[in-house]
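Aim 2, interim progress. The first record below pairs a target sequence with its structure tokens.
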Amino acid sequence: MPCLFLFIALFITSSALAENSMAPGIVRDINQIDEKKLTGFAIPYVFYSESLALTAGVGGGVTGLQKGQAGLYGTVFTSTNSSTAAYFLGTNLKLPLGERIFADPILSAGWFAKERDYISGNPNFANKQAASNDSDPEDFIESSGHDNWAELKLKYILPMGHSRESAISIYKVDRGVLESGATGGGEWQPLKNSITFLQIKPFYRYRSFEFTSKEEAKSTNGVEFAVVHDNSDFPQNPSSGSSQRFKVARDFGWFNSMHSWTVIKGDFSKYFSLGETEKFRQRVVALNLWVSDNISSDSANTPEGVVFSHRAPSYMGSSLGGFYRLRGYPQNRFSDKTAVYYGAEVRLIPDWNPLRSVSFLNFFDIDWIQLVGILEAGRVDDSWSSETFYSDLHWDAGIGIRLMTRKIVGRFDMAFSEEGVTSWVMVGQAF
């Protein structure tokens, strides 16, 4: 189970890995003496999924690089349906441009026998808008094709609040639960506590769909700018405080002016600690509000249906469904000009951790198991109105199991919606 969390998460979707980043930090056990712990590992894996069939690969990485805050990870795999891919991920690599500049690079390349995208083109739904809020769940295209992707997140940690003296935070934990070194969690005072950083992310993605009679290829490239203010106590697994993210992404249409687009997003999270009990080491209620607007999007009615221009692809635009929002639906199931999402989770860490006593799992250093209840709602729309926030909302409910393994949070979520049951494996909390 731990190796699946660490490595299946790396390649099931590259776009999910790009969702959010954190400021550099080092997590140490309260009894750890070494200031720096460099660890390398490589693990083979085998699993089965509907889109990939039987899959085998190997993943590995190195943690504790530089001052201990950085890591490098990668995986390659092949499957019985001839899908093949390779992924590389770096986290919090300090660049020789100053003490406060860090980079998160991601590179991926793959060919997949079964790719799905909720966009118009399905002949069974002529003159219908795929992925709209009231669209049919069968209105998608599916074929084999390439999916190549690259991005470089550059982060500048502002010298204010908790990061006034050092850009790298140090968290002391007892079996994975924060004991000291909280970077926030109290009053919202950016100049006195919390972490604030600026981020610029150049990105590129190329996707192709190889149909019997033709091949369709789409690409996007541009830059995303972000301001992140994190006032949570422990960003990897917050129990109190809040966080806010504001992003503006732009494809400038350097290769095709009609493909230019601009998207703005706001992400707001709040965490409430319910304290400890005899059976639970930690109890937390986590809330999230996310809004998105593809402000450049335009549309026109034609005999062939609605034609859009200057609209971002779903994985960069206002979309719901998948690893982070509306987990009871397929990846990017809903997509339009605007989107709103509400998320709530109850996160419980029992004192009981049977995995810690299993000898062959000692390598994974499993600090805790977290039980999670999930409730979500949201919708997409072609414009903003008061009804966008409460009318015709899609919803789901589910459960999750999270592990802290080698100081990384891995999660398995299963959510139930009006369109079925969907499960996800990923690294990091959903929000």
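The second target in this work package is listed in the same format:
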Amino acid sequence: MKEELPVEIQQQMTTNKSTIILWMLVLLLVGCKQRDRFYINKFEHPVKVEIQRFDVDFIDLDTNNTLASLKELEQKHPGFYSLFLRDVLSMHLADSTDNALQITNFLNDSVFRRVNQKVKDVFKDTEPIEQDLTEAFSYLHHYFPDKPLPDIYFFVSGFNHQFLVTDTILGVGTDLYLGADYPLYPDITYEYLIPNMRYEMLVPDLINTWLHQIFPFQGKNDVLSHMLYEGKILYLTRIFLPNTSKNLLIGYEPATMNWCKAHEKQIWASMLENRHLFSTGQLLITQLIHPAPFTSPISSESPGRLGVWIGWQIVESYMQNNKNVGLSELMSDHNYQQMLEQSNYRP
């Protein structure tokens, strides 16, 4: 005969079971909330990204025999080598002796030796970056199989170049992502740009740059068109980097995102009242879209690029209210006035 457990133990077991079920439901709801209709759990044709460490190979050149080392570097990275010399170092390939001397001086410079060592320290482990890029480009290949996938290169630029972009290459200057507290940055750039010169921003910036390359702007040259175009780029970036926080995608601090959300209605009202949307003024477009300490047509208390942030919200609303529209249709649609009307955007 089976002996029954005491009532107290039975009640405790029931409580524990209920707690486990409750937590499972919470986790399931949270997971569902984070995923949308474009989420992919497992890719049928995943893309594998391997970063080409041109930066390390360049830093480690033998400066006692620079000319021979440069020839080896060119053989290892033939496509990127000439691009780097021409666009970053402003050198001609024919001037090999002069090039070797200038590169030797650069690599032996006391300041840049410390900078380049910092690059090797900060980006010692690139596996997390490769994993994020692998996921992002797997999404790109899945939804846009006709679009090219770039070879990814890291390089050091002497604080001279952030990106090198061609039809097949996407290079990033790793010496411009050493951290917002890096002591040399205040001497080389504007203060408002420094917070985003950090490791966490490299992948979002890379994806954003490549999406601008393969989806160039088309449409009327007015504020609304530029806002929604940038909003589409951010919408794709969010889909392709599902585990990256939204504030990193646009380069805002969490407190800045909270400010935007709290003032969204007033921002939109200001744009409407001042008839910004259909303005073709290049200065206004620049003020609303490009990086700046604040968005001057809106408020001196605001962050920069508020036009981009509002454009992103409109595109999110449009895709939420038009479930029949896929990503390909979204990116090929350049009728931005119609998109605004069909978004039912009401902050």
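Residues 7-34 form the longest helix (28 residues). This observation will shape the mutagenesis plan for the next reporting period.
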